[in-house]
Structure formats: C-alpha cells, structure tokens
C-alpha cells in the first residue's frame, strides 16, 4: 500500500525555507564569533565571553518573547522585523571586520543583539507553525523545522563558517548577512493565509506564567533532579566550549577550518544516534542509559583533556554528541509523561532557563578556569563535577523509570 504524501502547503514551505536559511546563518557565527575574538585576544576569559554574549540573551529574552507572542503584534511581521534586524547587525559586524575596525566590546554588543533577536525569532517560529499547519500534520511540520535547525546551526553552518573565516575574517559575517536578507525576503514574499479555518469562540484563559512553571517544576522530584542535572551539565559543557577555539589552536595545533569540524563533530554524533534512540531505550531502558550517559560524559571530558591528536578529539566529540541527544530525548520524554498539558509550555520555559543559564554561567566559569590553569582546566573541572553528579544521582535517577534502585 502506497504511503500518503503529506503536503504542508506553500505558507509553511516559505516559513521553513526562511528558517533553514536563517539557521545556516546562525551556524556561521557559531564558529566565526569565537574565531574573531581569538584573533583579537588570547585571553581565555575574553574569548569565552563571546559565547556568554551569544547565550545570555536566551536566558533574558525567552520569557519576554513568550509574553510578546501571547499579547504582541502579528507574529509574521514580528519575524520579518527580527530577521531584518539580524541582517543589519551582522552586516555592521562584517563591515567593521572588513575595515579592520572591530573591537572586543563592539563584537560583544553585536553578538548579544544578534542572540536576542534569534531568541525572539525562535519563539515566533514555534508560534507560527501551528497557525499554518493542520493539527494532524504538526508532528511532521515540527520535525522538518527541527531538522533544518540542526542541519544549519550545528552541522553545516559551523563547518562552513570556520572555512570561510580561514579564507577571510569578514567572509562568514558577510555570508550570514546575505542569508538573513534572503530569509527576510522569503517571509515578506508570502502573504499570511493560514489554511486552517478560524472558528470564533470565547477567549481562552491566559496561559500559566513562567513562575508557575518554575514552582511546579521545583515541587516535582523528578523534574527538579533533571533541571539541576541540566544546569550542571551545561555549565561544564559550555565551560569547555567557550575556550574550544583556543583548545583547538593550542592543544591540537589546529587551524580555523579544523575548529569548525570540531563543532560539527558533536552535531554529527547526534544525527547518527537519532534513528537508534527508540531501539536503545527499548533494549536497555531509560535509567541505565541515563546512568551510562553520565559515565560517558565524565570519560569524554577526561579523554579530551589528555588527547593531542585532532582525529582523536573528533572521535570523542562524536561520541559526546550521540550521548547528548540520547540524554536529551530520554529526559524530554520523561518530562512529557509527568507535566500536565496546561503547564507544558511554562514548564518547558522553566527548563530553558536552567539550560540557557547553565550555558551562560558556564562560559564565564570556563574562561576563568582556563585563564588560571590552561585550556584543559575546564575539562578537568567538568570531569570532577559530572563524576560527582553521577555518584550523587545514581539511585535518584531510578525515579525516571519508576524503579526502586
């Protein structure tokens, strides 16, 4: 029997193309931003602060974005404005780099502005998709959006951005500005005409606040454990990622293009494990996989602290990426089982605070540690922290699967 081909409509296609192009642009700056800072200074803290500038907006603006989307202007017009803003910001950065006028404070400010617009734009995308696609096709639509995001911002974009930086420092930012311009045109070139019939009904009650989601999370033993684990794991991971560009240069003797491959290796590991996740969970169960994940993460940090060969570092990061996706999938599933539908959005927003907060704080922590103990210092700190987390939560993780121990 032939499978029915799902058609999501031209409106969704335009939105998807725009988002895919914009995420490819984001991926370019994921690599080019740290490379630019590393060309201006060798101070690990100042280099790591570029990652802080990119991550902090998610902590600050995601709650604002949710409120704006609930009560604010037309979401498509908002998305066009945000994409145009991102284009202008990156174009300004490209011009400064071409003219050799880029300074560290200015780069921080532009990266922060770019991150703020990106955080708001992601929220707008998430709110627009349900308005353009029938409810029965939302799973397919969201998976396509996620695939475009993963391919652009974490797999293709960083590798391409690092390669372009090796050609010319301003090249990735110029390409990113052009990408955002194309993304804005794709949005403006389509009129908003949702295919779903709108039925007039009484206004729904306001959604639960982020504070309510935080309270519910904190009073649930499982979610509290997962949120604190996420905070610590992101702090240690981003502590290393903040100085990864210096690690590549000083420890692996690798150039800019190779740095992009290190970033892409983690995403590649995640892509490889995605089709295996259901079988792994069925075969081993969620609790053993989470416990194994903590062990894998601890060993990966130690391995990266010890290796000096670029291929070995790539191999470790591929394994780390696979573990990250597996861990994330299992914990999101556990969350979905216990969070009521009414609170899902606010609880997910609360988890985003733990995630982005850990990333932002971790970048600064890693820069301070690397400044004091060298570029492998954050890795040794990460190994100790995750090792202790593993020991302290070994029995508690059984809560996820309803086990006793």
Automatic annotation (TrEMBL):
Localisation per UniProt entry: Cell membrane
Ranges of residues in domain Major facilitator superfamily (MFS) profile: 222-405
UniProt membrane topology term: Multi-pass membrane protein
SUPFAM superfamilies in the cross-refs: MFS general substrate transporter
Primary site of residence: membrane
GO cellular component terms, A-Z: plasma membrane
Pfam families: MFS_3
Sorted UniProt keywords: Cell membrane, Membrane, Transmembrane, Transmembrane helix, Transport
Membrane-crossing residue ranges in chain numbering: 77-99, 106-133, 225-248, 254-277, 312-330, 351-373, 379-400
PROSITE patterns reported in the protein's UniProt record: MFS
GO molecular function: transmembrane transporter activity
Gene3D superfamilies from the UniProt entry: MFS general substrate transporter like domains (1.20.1250.20)
InterPro entries hit by this protein: MFS_dom (IPR020846), MFS_trans_sf (IPR036259), TM_effector (IPR010290)
Protein name: Major facilitator superfamily MFS_1
Source species of the chain: Actinosynnema mirum (strain ATCC 29888 / DSM 43827 / JCM 3225 / NBRC 14064 / NCIMB 13271 / NRRL B-12336 / IMRU 3971 / 101)
């Amino acid at each position: 029997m032939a499978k029915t081909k799902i058609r999501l409509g031209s409106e969704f296609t335009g939105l998807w193309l725009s988002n895919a192009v914009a995420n490819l642009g984001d991926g370019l700056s994921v690599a080019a931003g740290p490379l630019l800072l590393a060309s201006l200074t060798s101070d690990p803290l100042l280099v790591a602060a570029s990652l802080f500038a990119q991550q902090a907006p998610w902590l600050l603006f995601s709650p604002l974005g949710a409120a704006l989307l609930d009560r604010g202007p037309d979401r498509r017009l908002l998305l066009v404005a945000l994409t145009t803003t991102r284009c202008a910001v990156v174009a300004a950065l490209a011009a400064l780099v071409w003219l050799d006028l880029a300074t560290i404070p200015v780069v921080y400010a532009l990266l922060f502005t770019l991150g703020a617009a990106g955080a708001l734009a992601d929220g707008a995308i998430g709110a627009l998709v349900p308005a353009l696609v029938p409810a029965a096709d939302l799973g397919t639509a969201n998976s396509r959006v996620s695939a475009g995001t993963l391919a652009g911002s974490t797999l293709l974009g960083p590798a391409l951005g690092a390669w372009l930086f090796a050609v010319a420092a301003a090249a990735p930012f110029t390409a990113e500005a052009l990408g955002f311009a194309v993304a804005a045109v794709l949005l403006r070139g389509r009129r908003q005409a949702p295919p779903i019939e709108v039925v007039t009904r009484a206004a729904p009650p306001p959604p639960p606040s982020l504070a309510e989601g935080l309270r519910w999370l904190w009073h649930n033993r499982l979610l509290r454990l997962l949120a604190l684990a996420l905070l610590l794991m992101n702090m240690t991971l981003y502590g290393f990622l903040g100085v990864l560009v210096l690690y590549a240069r000083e420890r692996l003797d690798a150039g800019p293009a190779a740095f992009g491959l290190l970033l892409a290796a983690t995403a590649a590991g995640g892509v490889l494990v995605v089709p295996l996740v259901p079988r792994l969970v069925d075969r081993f169960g969620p609790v053993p996989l989470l416990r194994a994940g903590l062990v894998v993460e601890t060993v990966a940090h130690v391995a990266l602290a010890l290796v000096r060969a670029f291929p070995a570092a790539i191999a470790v990061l591929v394994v780390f990426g696979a573990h990250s996706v597996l861990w994330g999938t299992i914990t999101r599933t556990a969350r979905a089982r216990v969070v009521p539908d009414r609170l899902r959005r606010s609880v997910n927003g609360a988890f985003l605070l733990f995630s982005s907060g850990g990333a932002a704080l971790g970048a600064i922590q890693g820069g301070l540690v690397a400044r004091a103990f060298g570029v492998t210092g954050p890795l040794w700190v990460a190994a100790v922290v995750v090792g202790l987390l593993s020991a302290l939560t070994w029995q508690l993780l059984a809560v996820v699967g309803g086990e006793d121990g």
